[in-house]
Amino acid sequence: MASALGEASPNRRQVLAKAVIDALGTAALALGLAVPILALRTEQNISNELILQPRWGYVAVAVVGAFSARLVYLLLAAAGPAPRRRKLTVPSGWRDAAARSFAGIGLVCLVLYPLIALSLTGKAGAIKWIDNFGIQIMIYIMLGWGLNIVVGLAGLLDLGYVAFYAVGAYSSALLAQNFGLSFWICLPLAGILAAFWGVLLGFPVLRLRGDYLAIVTLAFGEIIRLILINWVPVTGGYAGISGIPRPTLLGLPFNASEEGFAAFFHLEFSPVHRAIFLFYVILVLALLTNWVTLRLRRLPIGRAWEALREDEIACRSLGINTTNTKLTAFALGAGFGGFAGAFFAARQGFISPESFTFMESAIVLAIVVLGGMGSQIGVAIAAVAMIGGTEILRELDWLRRIFGPDFEPTQYRMLLFGLAMVLVMIWKPRGLISFRMPSIFLTERRRVRADLVQEGHG
Amino acid sequence: MRAAQAPLLTVEHLTMRFGGLVAIDDLSFAAARGEITAIIGPNGAGKTTVFNCITGFYKPSGGRVLLNLSDATPTADQIDRLTASGARHAPIPGGELFLLERMPDHEIAARAKLARTFQNIRLFAGMTVLENLIVAQHNRLMVASGWTVLGLVGAPRYREAEHSALEKAKYWLDKVGLTERADDPAGDLPYGAQRRLEIARAMCTEPTLLCLDEPAAGLNPRESADLKRFLKSLQVEHATSLLLIEHDMSVVMEISDHVVVLEYGQKISDGPPDHVRNDPKVIAAYLGVEDAEVEEVEAEISNE
């Protein structure tokens, strides 16, 4: 080793020179990219003229950043052969215990979350954390778990999941407005209607496979959105539907009135009560979705879904009616989407077609794919990371101090989404939690490696 | 022809055209109950197409595929009445008649009790060996789980059914020697074991007729000898009739009771193995002849 060090110094100089040259190349590339993207910005001045505003500072930051990142990377790589990563051989029983306890800890955290937020930030500050973070994330966890049935278990690529979310939201809003039904009656009805639409879409579509299925479901999502926009007498078009009744706790509304929740329990009225209540409602709904999914995986229907994802032809040769099996997956996934939609409508009190764009489908699908198709915990982690991450961006005011007052971190949301997806796909091509747990075992429950599990062909 | 056993499967004038290509041309044969029937023929003779027509994966262009799940031999009148009625199946005294060419594939497996394996093995690779065998018992478990409703609330009826499904899976695991690997993913098994598992999975559907598409392909001589014993035991112990496509002549000649030879979609020979083995047409077309004998064989064929 000593002799190797002695010989190293001329060698090291060579390495350094090479690294600098390489990094200069990277910097040139960054310059080439940054000039058209960052260097100039068009703005309107007071007399409505477009003026070009140079932003060479941004370009400089990008170029210097690329140069130094590349240099550091190369020097670190050259500093010696990367130490062999030791493989941790942990008995799988231990790992399973860890996974189980992780789910348990996660659940406890979710249950305690509103109280923690309340105690840390006080009544006024907690609303943001419970409503914007907690409820928002839980809605996406529930949507992710619903879509996981269709995409993760049955292997049917559905790009129009938001359609069922919209059906749930609008049907519950319309039922509430036209028939005066309360949230707790609208909720199951919305789920049933969404499931019905799932079957309706399923019948013609499920003969298609793979890309074709994806395209038709995408179109279905758009059709629903366009109907919501154009069927003005019923849906109100772009104006949407407002004044949707809020959920009550056993008939106690969350308002400042005499019969309200706060008055009943002799508490000082605070809007945070409703936020906490809504959080627990969506938590229970999401856990119901999870419980049903986990339970179904151990039933013949769930095994048939997974078998369908593995090999449809073999399924048919065993007497499994694949059309019915796909339809149940579609209907159930759609039903849970409908529940989430009804909850969304009641939480917002106002819905419009803008909440049900293709972007929503894409985000939910991204959550399922990032989490690891078929994995419940993976989907939950991905939802927390993606939705929580986006909301956190709103909080990062200190970034403005670096990039100037015009810098709006939330505008870079999609960029970061994309970056996160690329990174996860490099390191964990089958999602954060990519193994599959068998639904039944003889002696020991052993994980199935991701490379053996099929993704489904539609 | 041979009236020893009532035919279980009767294929009559089966024709399959793909555009202008006639893959099967007016093929008729019968597979008797309790027998092992082999379909052999050179590559591209249409063997797998026949299989796909029988098991419902293709809709034949013409012909009738009759499956008789009864103890009695159906009369011509009964068969004609079913054919004319347009129905897929009809009850007859002591059982039921099925017209397979009218039925979709999954219904053939579920109702007509006909199971199949595939030339390129089709296992659920990402599911464990045990799960593969449980999925095969889907329909019975589905009924027991009250179409999921009873199963969701954990009804005892479903738990009993799942237990007996597990027992059956264990029986077949033991039978094909895969008990040790029950909790491993099916995709991790070696090739020979995958072939055995696929047969075990088909047997878990309790078929009356088991159709095997080249079960000995890719097996070494020892595995192939084991397979022969195994198939024989299916026939004897489980009263399963077998229909198999096979290229391995040692398997075909040793275990089958009846051999059908296809060439270019047409039947060129039909009978017990000894008859087929000595049939000059088969020798000429399928097994090949030595150059010196070509004229002699041709003369013999033209004399017929």
Based on the coordinates given, report the CATH architecture of the largest domain in chain B.
3-Layer(aba) Sandwich
User: How do the helices and strands follow one another from N- to C-terminus of chain B?
Assistant: EEEHEHEEHEHHHHHEHEHEEHHH
| CATH homologous superfamily designation of the largest domain in chain B | P-loop containing nucleotide triphosphate hydrolases
Span between N and C termini of chain A? 57 Å
Number of strands of chain B: 11
Rg calc of chain B: 21 Å
State the separation between the terminal residues of chain B, measured CA to CA. 19 Å
The beta-strand count of chain A equals 4
Provide the CATH topology of the largest domain in chain A.
Answer: ABC transporter involved in vitamin B12 uptake, BtuC
Assembly annotation: heterodimer
| Helical proportion of chain A, percent range | 55-70%
Order of helices and strands of chain A: HEEHHHHHHEHHHHHEHHHH
Tally of distinct domains of chain A = 2
Which two chains share the most extensive interface?
Answer: A-B, 39 and 45 residues
Largest sheet of chain B: 6 strands, mixed
CATH topology of the largest domain in chain B: Rossmann fold
What proportion of the residues of chain B is helical, as a percent range?
40-55%
Main sheet characteristics of chain A = 2 strands, antiparallel
Mean pLDDT of chain B: 84
Structure write-up:
The complex is a heterodimer of chains A (458) and B (304). Chain A is mainly alpha-helical and 458 residues long. Chain A folds into 2 domains: 77 residues, no CATH class; 334 residues, ABC transporter involved in vitamin B12 uptake, BtuC (Orthogonal Bundle), CATH 1.10.3470. Helices cover 69% and strands 3% of the residues of chain A. In chain A, the strands form 2 sheets. A two-stranded antiparallel sheet of chain A has the order 1-2. A two-stranded antiparallel ribbon of chain A has the order 3-4. In chain A, a hairpin with a 5-residue loop joins strand 1 and strand 2. The radius of gyration of chain A is 26 Å and the shape is globular. Chain B is an alpha/beta fold and 304 residues long. Chain B has 2 domains: 183 residues, Rossmann fold (3-Layer(aba) Sandwich); 83 residues, no CATH class. Helices cover 40% and strands 24% of the residues of chain B. A 6-stranded mixed beta sheet of chain B has the order 7-8-9-3-10-11, with helices on both faces. Chain B has a 5-stranded antiparallel beta sheet with strand order 2-1-4-6-5, sandwiched between helices. In chain B, helix 4 runs parallel beside helix 8 and helix 7 packs across helix 8. Chain B is globular. In chain B, 44% of the residues are buried. Chains A and B meet through helix 9, helix 10 and helix 11 of A and helix 3, helix 4, helix 5 and helix 7 of B.
